[in-house]
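step: validate -> pass
step: tokenize input -> pass
step: predict -> running
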Amino acid sequence: MALLDKQSSIVDTIVPGTTLRPVRGWGGGSLSLHVGTALLGLYVLAAAVSTLWTPFDPREVGAGEPYAPPDGTHWFGTDRLGTDVFSQVLAATRLDLGITVAAVALALTVGAFLGTVAGFYRGVADGLIMRSLEVLQAFPTLLLAMLIVQAVGPGTWNVIAVLAFVGLPEYLRLARAEILSKRTWQFAEAARLAGCRPWRVAFGHLLPNSTGPLLAYTSINAAWVVLVTSSLGFLGVGIRPGEPEWGSMISRGQSGITSGEWWISLFPGLAVLGLAAAFYLLGDGLTDATDPRRRR
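step: predict -> pass
step: emit ->
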């Protein structure tokens, strides 16, 4: 109760007249937040375990009989080369989750910086940044990602850079909108009167007080990155051939769906679905916890 009273006073300071109420779910949090956190925790654990152990080498050909169905030895069965599907799914967790976290962090950093510059300095900088953004958003995101990856070549770091580049417009717009709305607030004016230089006001005062919407959007962006990464892998662009990756595993197993070897595509497909759902649920839960208007 003491913690709840403390949180209520903090929120009441930010939004006068608002009282923090317990949100539905286990232990005082929203159900979406708990489920999303638990799911994401399982994926992080799987990624950590895969760095030290997998039942079989995920690249080993002939680890079992080709097209062996799931059993006690090969939990997710084997593919047409006899490679253990469970080991591949486990190893791919580290790759797909790593790409997602790195791409989101890079897009957040660059987008927040450019949005702060555009919103605070306005003028020519704002015009150039926003016109470039409009050109970028004229292309469908998946098509643009495919074209850039094809141009720069395959590789994990190339995929991270491309997904961050394609995903940063929303961060830029959010940061710019927040800076524009807060640049004349009293704390910003007080910083100017105290003798702070413009860049210090922008990045030392305005940006730290504008991160709420940016951080809330990261979970939605992360779910999008998971789906696009798998789409690129399914289409055979981006990730180098032979790397365990969920999208490429789904692509290799799609021919077996009609002939009865359903497990090759099913389990990596469920992995993609689960990770995307974890980020969506986490984002929804965080919004419930931080937005007083969504509390009942």
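step: describe -> The radius of gyration is 23 Å.
step: cleanup -> pass
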